[in-house]
Amino acid sequence: MTLFRLGVAVFFLLAAALPAQAEDPSPAEVAKIQKILLDYLQQHPEIIVDALKAYQQQQDAKKAEQTRLTIAAAKDELLDDPTSPVGGNPDGDVTIVEFFDYRCPIARPWPPISTRPYRRMARFG
After folding, report:
1. If you ran DSSP here, which 8-state letter would residue 120 be given?
2. What is the mean pLDDT of the chain?
3. Backbone angles phi, psi at 101, to 5 degrees
4. Is residue 78 part of a domain?
5. Does residue 13 fall inside a structural domain?
6. Max mean pLDDT range (2-6, 27-31, 74-78, 104-108)
7. pLDDT, position 125
8. Is pLDDT above 60 for 63?
9. Which residue(s) pair with 124 in the sheet?
10. How far apart are the first and last CA of the chain?
11. How confident is the model at residue 58 (pLDDT cuts 50, 70, 90)?
12. What is each CA distance from 37 to 4, 17, 29, 44, in whole angstroms?
């Protein structure tokens, strides 16, 4: 809601500071507007934090959507590749695709999915 307040404040400041005609603002008017905005942001710094959080959420949502689209586009390649090894029930209701880089020092210590307890459930394929 603070971003909304800032937007409304900027709108009214610009509307009040700019002349009715479509002229460029004078340097004095620009300086006055900048001073008002700077003062407002200094009095309410949480607006910047809120804006950064909103931006990060937008970026995360875009990245998640792109990841979803990429996986959806490669669904057949991931699930129906005849050269991929299959463990457990090949006709199971659930398919788990495991990505693993044996050269990665972070991933190497984690046990593969096939050794985890839920892997033994009959419906997993």
Report:
1. G
2. 79
3. -115, 105
4. no
5. yes
6. 27-31
7. 45
8. yes
9. 94
10. 48
11. very high
12. 14, 12, 12, 10
Consecutive H or E run containing 2: helix 2-17
Q: Residue 116 has what DSSP assignment?
A: S
> Is residue 13 domain-shared with residue 53, that is, in the same domain?
yes
Distance, in Å, from the CA atom of 108 to the CA atom of 79, rounded to the nearest integer, reads 24
Give the confidence band of 116 by pLDDT, cuts at 50, 70, 90: low
Question: 24 and 62: one domain?
Answer: yes
For residue 79, being part of any structural domain is answered with: no
Q: Residues 65-71: what's their mean pLDDT? A: 93
How far is the C-alpha of 12 from the C-alpha of 83, rounded, in Å? 64
Three-state DSSP state, 36: helix
Please state, in angstroms and rounded to a whole number, the distance separating the CA atoms of residues 58 and 53: 9
> Which DSSP string do the residues of 45-95 spell out, in sequence order?
THHHHHHHHHHHHHHHHHHHHHHHHHHHHTHHHHHS-TTS---S-TT-SB-
Residue 25 falls inside a structural domain:
yes
**Are 2 and 58 found together in one domain?**
yes
Does residue 32 surpass a pLDDT of 60? yes
Rg (CA), the chain: 28
